[in-house]
Amino acid sequence: MSPAELRGAEWVLASCPFELGGLPVALQLSTRTHADSAMTEWNAYFTTGVPHEAVTDLVVALNTAHCC
Predict the structure, then answer these.
(1) How far apart are CA 45 and CA 9, in angstroms?
(2) Each residue's pLDDT tens digit, 30-55
(3) Distance between CA atoms of 22 and 42, rounded to whole angstroms?
(4) Would strands 19-20 and 7-11 be described as parallel, antiparallel, or unpaired?
(5) Which residues pair with 7 in a beta bridge?
(6) Handedness of CA 2, 65, 67, 53 (dihedral sign)
(7) What 8-state DSSP symbol labels residue 34?
(8) Which of 3, 5, 8, 32 sees the fewest Cβ atoms within 10 Å?
């Protein structure tokens, strides 16, 4: 969770496994507009086959943009 509690990342493979397109989802990124809101503005799901560099680049871009 980010310090402002507006962005978060969760390893979901073991805790609550589900699939997208027949592939297991491993990581979920999410953002919300207000820290006191339980509703997320958007979610991004990554399967086990996505290169870690792609996930890292997205997280760095989100932190740089301060958009969420």
Answers:
(1) 10
(2) 888 888 888 888 888 998 888 989 98
(3) 21
(4) unpaired
(5) 31
(6) negative
(7) -
(8) 3
